[in-house]
Each structure stands twice: as structure tokens, then as C-alpha cells.
Write a structure and sequence with these properties.
This protein has 9 helices and 8 strands. The chain is an alpha/beta fold. The protein folds into 2 domains: 153 residues, 3-Layer(aba) Sandwich (Rossmann fold); 65 residues. Strand 7, helix 8 and strand 8 form a beta-alpha-beta unit. Helix 1 packs across helix 3 and helix 4 packs across helix 9. The N and C termini lie close together (10 Å). Bound molecules: magnesium ion. The site of magnesium ion (MG) has 10 residues, from loops.
Length: 230
């Protein structure tokens, strides 16, 4: 099986430090235009879309070159601003990553974060980025639905074997994680450590929703069962 982890609200929380670093980056590049991410779709969103929303609000240059400058500056800022103390690993997240590896599963990221900042966040939460040898990231699709096929292609390239959608599990904390899994025929595991309840995650089509990832062995057993059926 292939297990794809979302980051924010699923593996970890940065208690607002990620958002603050983004706002500070806009200020650094454009001056103080009263930037805020209030009202912007953050949870389950893609960093490039968040950037584009803010640019539209303030009438900023939204070219590819401007985006590349933002992504670079945000990466530099997060690298220095985000501390281990601000980054809280979610209960059981690291243990589940390790257990999935130990079981022989493919393990990667499926996240709205940029690749560089994804790895910074994971590192600050105390999970070595090498546990995620590939992923699909927040500047690689028009919507989150574009990301699972990319992650599956990269898994095939990395492990040298094929993973079908029904052997692929997307783990995330928002209805957009569930949606991107189901839209691609993948298995969706919702976790309520973000802002969305297990009920809402189940109603949005999750195959299973759990309060936390703490029960490593039963979650791993469920993932093995549901993908073996495939
Ligand atoms: Mg999330």
C-alpha cells in the first residue's frame, strides 16, 4: 500500500507560526499593505492559491516570477522563524509514519505546502524529512484533486512498483483531503486533529475517521485490510 500524509492539522500544528511567516513575507516583499490571511481558504488549501488570493486582494503582481520570489522568501523566513517549540506533532503521527515504513508500505506527503516548507515543518515537528522521500505539493496543481495522481507517479518512480488508487490511502484533517482522495478513487482516512470533526469527515465521504492517529496498531491494521481488499 501507499500512505500519503497531509501536514497541517494531520502530522503537526504550527500554532499560527506558518501563517505569521507568510504574512511577514508579503510585508517583506511589498511593504506594509495591511496583509492578513483572514477569510482566505487555509485549511486544506494550496499555498500557491493562498498566495494568489492575497495578490488579488491587494492588486499585486501575480506572475510566475512573482510567485517564485514569494516562495523563495517564505522558505527562507520559515527556516529561521519556525521553531521546534512552536511546532506540535499530532498524537501518534510520527509513530504511524514509522509503523507504515516498517510494514513495507510506501510513504509520502500530499500537502498544500510547498516542498521546501513542507520539509521544514516536518523537521521542526521532530519527524525526519527522509521518511517522506517524495510527495505532491501546493504549487503543483490547480486544486488539491490534482495532487494524488502526481504522488502516485512519484511513488512508482521511487519504489519501482505500481500503486493503484485503491491501494493508496490519503490521510488528512479536512473535507478537501477526503475529496481529493475520493475524486481519484483512493482510500480516505480522516483525522479530527485539525478543525473538522470525525462526523463531518465521515459525511464528506471518508472511509474511516478517527479522533487522533494515536492508535497506531489498529489504524495500520485497518489500512492493510482496506487496501488488501483492492
Ligand atoms: Mg491539513
Amino acid at each position: 500500500m501507499l500512505v500519503l500524509f497531509d501536514i497541517d492539522g494531520t502530522l503537526l500544528r504550527t500554532e499560527g507560526a506558518g501563517v505569521r511567516a507568510m504574512v511577514a513575507t508579503f510585508r517583506e516583499l511589498h511593504g506594509d499593505l495591511g496583509f492578513s490571511l483572514e477569510g482566505v481558504q487555509m485549511a486544506g488549501g494550496l499555498d500557491r492559491l493562498i498566495w494568489r488570493d492575497v495578490c488579488a486582494r491587494h492588486g499585486l503582481d501575480a506572475s510566475n516570477a512573482a510567485h517564485a520570489r514569494f516562495r523563495e522568501a517564505y522558505g527562507v523566513r520559515l527556516q529561521t522563524d519556525l521553531t521546534h517549540a512552536q511546532t506540535r506533532a499530532m498524537p501518534g503521527a510520527a509513530a504511524l509514519v514509522h509503523a507504515a515504513h516498517a510494514s513495507g508500505a510506501g510513504v509520502g506527503l500530499l500537502t498544500g505546502n510547498y516542498e521546501h516548507t513542507a520539509h521544514i515543518k516536518v523537521d521542526r515537528a521532530g519527524i525526519a524529512p527522509r521518511y517522506f522521500p517524495f510527495g505532491a505539493f501546493g504549487d503543483e496543481g490547480a486544486t488539491r484533486r490534482d495532487l494524488p495522481p502526481l504522488a502516485m507517479d512519484r511513488a512508482r518512480a521511487h519504489y519501482g512498483r505500481e500503486f493503484t488508487p485503491s491501494q493508496t490511502i490519503v490521510i488528512g484533517d479536512t473535507v478537501l483531503d477526503i475529496d481529493c482522495a475520493k475524486a481519484n478513487g483512493c482510500v480516505a482516512l480522516g483525522v479530527a486533529t485539525g478543525a473538522t470533526s470525525t462526523e463531518v469527515l465521515m459525511d464528506s465521504g471518508a472511509d474511516l475517521a478517527v479522533e487522533t492517529l494515536a492508535d497506531t496498531q489498529s489504524i495500520l491494521a485497518w489500512m492493510q485490510r482496506v487496501t488488501a481488499r483492492a
